Amino acid sequence: MATLSPAAGLDVPLSAIDVSDATLYATDSWRPVFARLRAEAPVHFQPNSPFGPYWSVSRHADIMAVEARPDIFSSSHEFGGITILDLFDEFNLPQFIAMDRPKHSEQRRVVAPAFGPSEIARMAVEVRRRTQELLDSLPVGSEFYWVDQVSIELTTQMLAILFDYPWEKRRDLTLWSDWGGDIEAAINPATNLIRHQHMLDMTHALDALMAERKAKPPNGDLISAMAHSEAMGDMPFKERTGNYILLIVGGNDTTRNSMSGLVQAFNRFDSEWARLEADASLIPNAVSELIRWQTPLAHMRRTALADAEIAGVPVKQGDKIVLWYISGNRDEEVFPDAERFDVGRANARRHLSFGFGVHRCVGARLAELQLSVLIEELLARRLFPRQTGPAEYVPQAFVHGFRKLPVVLERH
User: Fold this and answer.
1) Distance from C-alpha of 13 to C-alpha of 90, rounded to nearest angstrom
2) Which whole-number Å values give the CA distances from 185 to 96, 180, 239, in the listed order?
3) Statement: the pTM of the whole predicted model exceeds 0.70
4) Lowest mean pLDDT segment, chosen from 198-212, 281-295, 382-396
5) If DSSP codes are grouped into helix, strand and coil, which group holds residue 330?
6) Nearest to 147 by CA among 274, 252, 251, 21
7) How far is the C-alpha of 190 from the C-alpha of 396, rounded, in Å?
C-alpha cells in the first residue's frame, strides 16, 4: 500500500490511491482523494490494501444502485460482512445488518418496534430532560472537551436507556463501542486480542441481562425484546456478540460523531447558526444536512455473489465492493457546493449516511431526535460551542469521527 500524504490525491497514479488508509482520516485529508476518484475512477480497484483487494464505489448514484441489489451484492457475514475488514475466523460475527434476507428481515423486525413513531415520541421527553440537565451542568466560558462531556455522555445515556443497562456502568457501553467499531485494531494481531477480550466481556455482561429479562415479562427494552423473540431469543454465542455490538456501535458511535460534527460544521460556517437563531423551523433540515456533512460511518461493504457490472465496470463473483458514503455525500452531481454546510439545503435528506434499501438504519429517527433536541436546547440557552483548538480524529476508515474536540461555550 502507498501511504498518501495529507496533500495527496491529485499527484499520484490512480493505482496508488488506497482510501482505506487511516492517515487520510486521522489528518482529515480525504476530500481531494475522493474528489479525484469521483471524477476519474468512480469504480476503482485497489489490489494491495492492508484489508486485501477491494473495489471503491464513490458516486452517489452508483452507491444507491449497489444497495438496491441485495440479491447480487450481499451484506452477509458469510462472505465478509459490512466493513472493508475481512474476518473469516473466530472473530467473524454474524449480526442482522450482516445478513441477507430472510434472516435479516426476521431479526430486524424484533428490534424495529423500539424505534417506531410511538416509541420515539415517548423517548423524546427523556431525551430532552437529559439534554437539558447536561447542558445546564457545563461550564460557560471555560474550555472543556465536547466529545467526552457532551457527545459521548448523551449517546451513552440513551443507549443505557434502550438496553436498560445499569446506569452506573453505562461507560462500559462506550468502551465496547470504541473497540467493536475499530477496524484498525482488528487487523493488528496484538490489539485484536484486546478487542476480542472486550467483545467477550460485553457478551457475558449482556447475556446476564438477557437471562434476567427472559425470566420476566417483556418490559420494552432492546435486550428484553431480543430475549422474548423467536428470531433472536436463542441465538448462538457469536451471533449474540455480533448483534450486541451492532446495536451499541449503531446507537452510540454514529450519533456521537454527528454531535461532534455539529461543533465543527457550525464553527466553519458560523453564519448557519445565525440562520437557526432567526428561524428554528430550519432545525430538522439542519439535522439532515449535518448527518450528510459529517457522515459518521465512512463506508459500508458488500460482496458480489455473481459476476456483475457497476456503472459499466465489470466485477467478479466474490469481489469486495466498498460503498464510500463519505464520498457519495460530497457528490457535486447531487449536492452542489457539497463541501459547504448549508442548513437550508433543499435535498439534504438525500444523504447516504443511513444507508439505502433493506439495510437502511433502523435507528435513524432516534439519531435525528437526539440531534434536533441538542440544537434546540443550545439555542434556547443562547449558547454556542466555540471550537478552541484542533480536533483529534478517529484514525480509521470505518467510523468517521472525533477523539477530542476542545470548546468554550459562549452565551450570545
Assistant:
1) 37
2) 23, 9, 21
3) yes
4) 198-212
5) coil
6) 252
7) 17
Which residues, 6 or more positions from 1, have their beta carbon under 8 angstroms from its beta carbon? 18, 21, 48, 49, 50
In whole angstroms, give the CA distance from residue 249 to residue 251.
Answer: 5
Q: Cell digits for 106?
A: 426476521
pLDDT surpasses 80 at 391: yes
Q: Give the CA distances from residue 200 to residues 10, 196, 349, in Å, rounded to whole numbers and listed in that order.
A: 44, 6, 37
**What distances in angstroms separate CA 345 from CA 49, 73, 264, 287, 351, one per listed residue?**
36, 31, 18, 11, 11
Which residue in the block uniquely carries the three cell numbers 475499530? 182
d(CA 149, CA 402): 13
Q: Which CATH architecture has domain 39-411?
A: Orthogonal Bundle (1.10)
Calculate the average pLDDT of the chain.
Answer: 89
Residues with Cβ within 8 Å of 62's Cβ and at least 6 positions away in sequence, in order, are: 42, 43, 310, 311
Instruction: Look up residue 229 and give its amino acid.
Output: S
Q: Which phi and psi (to 5°) does residue 390 adopt?
A: -65, 145
C-alpha span between 126 and 128 (Å, rounded):
5
Strand partners, 143: 408
200 alpha-carbon distance from chain centroid: 22
Strands 320-324 and 54-57: parallel
- Give the C-alpha distances (Å, rounded to integers) separating 321 from 84, 121, 315, 399: 8, 37, 9, 17
Separation of alpha carbons 390 and 405, rounded Å: 7
The dihedral through the CA atoms of 161, 162, 165, 168 has a sign that is negative
Q: How far apart are CA 224 and CA 233, in angstroms?
A: 9
> pLDDT of 110-154, one tens digit each?
666 666 787 788 889 999 999 999 999 999 999 999 999 999 999
pLDDT given at position 358? 66
Task: Write the burial class of residue 109 (CB in 10 Å: 0-12 exposed, 13-18 middle, 19+ buried).
Answer: middle
Asked if 140 and 411 count as a contact pair (C-beta separation under 8 A), the reply is yes
Query: Domain residues of the chain, as ranges?
Result: 39-411
Short-list 112, 136, 132, 135, CA closest to 124: 132
Q: In angstroms, what is the C-alpha Rg of the chain?
A: 21
| Cis before 102? omega within 30 | yes
Q: Which three cell numbers stand for residue 285?
A: 433540515
Are 292 and 400 contacting, i.e. CB atoms less than 8 angstroms apart? Answer: no
Joined together, the cell numbers standing for residue 242 give: 455480533
Q: Do residues 217 and 128 make contact, with C-beta atoms less than 8 angstroms apart?
A: no
